[in-house]
Amino acid sequence: MQTFSPTEENYIKAIYHLSKGKETVATNAIAEAMETTAASVTDMLRKLNDKQIIDYTKYKGVSLTTEGRIIATQLVRKHRLWEVFLKEKLGFAWDKVHDIAEQLEHIRSEELTERLDGFLGNPKFDPHGDPIPDAKGRIHTQNYKLLSEVSEGEQVVVVGVKDSSAKFLNYLDSQKIALGSKVQMEQKVEFDNSVKVKIGDTNTMISDMAASLILVM
Amino acid sequence: MQTFSPTEENYIKAIYHLSKGKETVATNAIAEAMETTAASVTDMLRKLNDKQIIDYTKYKGVSLTTEGRIIATQLVRKHRLWEVFLKEKLGFAWDKVHDIAEQLEHIRSEELTERLDGFLGNPKFDPHGDPIPDAKGRIHTQNYKLLSEVSEGEQVVVVGVKDSSAKFLNYLDSQKIALGSKVQMEQKVEFDNSVKVKIGDTNTMISDMAASLILVM
DNA sequence: GCACTATATTAGTTGATTCAAAAAAGCAAA
DNA sequence: TTTGCTTTTTTGAATCAACTAATATAGTGC
């Protein structure tokens, strides 16, 4: 299996992020994002094209190949998992985690990534609220919604949280809310957007703040 | 503050480890340790000498300067802290942690190191039993001894453990042994090397296996 | 001083990354 | 379809880190 230098990986990531929405990414767009010149980018594009990471046609922009997309999502996965670790476990402020994660994402060890994921409780979102791809590179944002968005009468299952601090997890514990819990939306209070839900046989009030951090489907 | 490439850092670490006991380290010794040629080493020595990391006199071998020694111990500190993390938190086997720590030790962030240290409970030893330098680079091996080495009648204070797995820490908890606990050695049993100690007002039997993992002074 | 070993120097290679300047391609309006 | 403009590519080269083979020199034990 071929490996990539940190610089190559950063190019791959940049192309991935710039691809959002667009079919192809322009050379100049990459140059701007990487704070370098178009000439350097063209150089790297030829290299990544040879390695079959991108589909590159001169003057026509680039797109990631399937393999390129896998590499990119794995980088994003690692980056965001490390961000969760830095914030939730080491207590870094959420705005300080990015730069260190930028270094940590280049550590090469699949086993490390998977063990870290498990250790963190398979988080679905990083401290900035961005979704974390799973080991296969899938991001399932669209399937999820927030508990605060569920309609009255609807029954849903808890699949994740956007905040995995000890404080919030303890709160969930005390309310008997866990991953996999079946939750029935009983009533939505207009006044403060809090919600009344039924979990098992008991009714519980949950504030809007908490309900906006609980992911369900 | 000047920074160093991973390769430079590896040279510094090698010189540090080869300095054990000796006054100076020979070029060839470094070449062998780094699996390279003496010529490459000489190159790097000149470079590190210019950066004031080592004292280098041609044909006379090298030694680390004070600054070099600080950098080396910080690298060792980071390496061993990450090893503890990988083993105790992520559940890696002790013989698998070295290679990944070899990568992680090059991550640049003092705050990361100090927060990691705190998160791990300021461990004094890595999974191989090697001592972890503190933030100031000090290694206090000589002050410590194992509980199993204490003489009858002696009173000591618990300052660390060599195994910080949940299993062992739970055991210590149940025996009311914590960091800072005063322990009086009552009796050493010759048959199985277990020890009888007094903690507060209560007497407890501790097996040789456990007593050999508890650091006291 | 001789022979041997350790070390240093020289001169050059490789690979990664970058860039300035010039050329080419694409594009769109006249 | 020509012109003018923008974008992109190519060219040619520079830099840097790391390394090495071959050669020269220093140190050391006898």
SS-derived structural category of chain A: alpha+beta
- Largest inter-chain contact set: A-B, 18 and 18 residues
Report the uncertain regions of chain A: none
Classified in CATH, the superfamily of the domain at 145-216 in chain A is Ferrous iron transport protein A (FeoA)
> From N to C, what is the helix and strand string of chain A?
HHHEEHHHEEHEEEHE
The counted number of beta strands of chain A is 8
Give the amount of beta strand of chain A, in percent. Answer: 15-25%
The outline of chain A comes out as elongated
> What do the pLDDT scores of chain A average to?
91
Distance N to C terminus of chain A: 37 Å
Q: If you compute it from the alpha carbons, what radius of gyration of chain A comes out, rounded to the nearest whole angstrom?
A: 21 Å
| Named CATH topology of the domain at 145-216 in chain A | SH3 type barrels
Helix content of chain A: 40-55%
As laid out across the biggest beta sheet of chain A, the strand order is: 3-8-4-5-6-7
Helices of chain A, by number, come to 8
**Oligomer class:** homodimer
Sheet with the most strands, sense and barrel status of chain A? 6 strands, antiparallel
What is the level-2 CATH architecture name of the domain at 145-216 in chain A? Answer: Roll
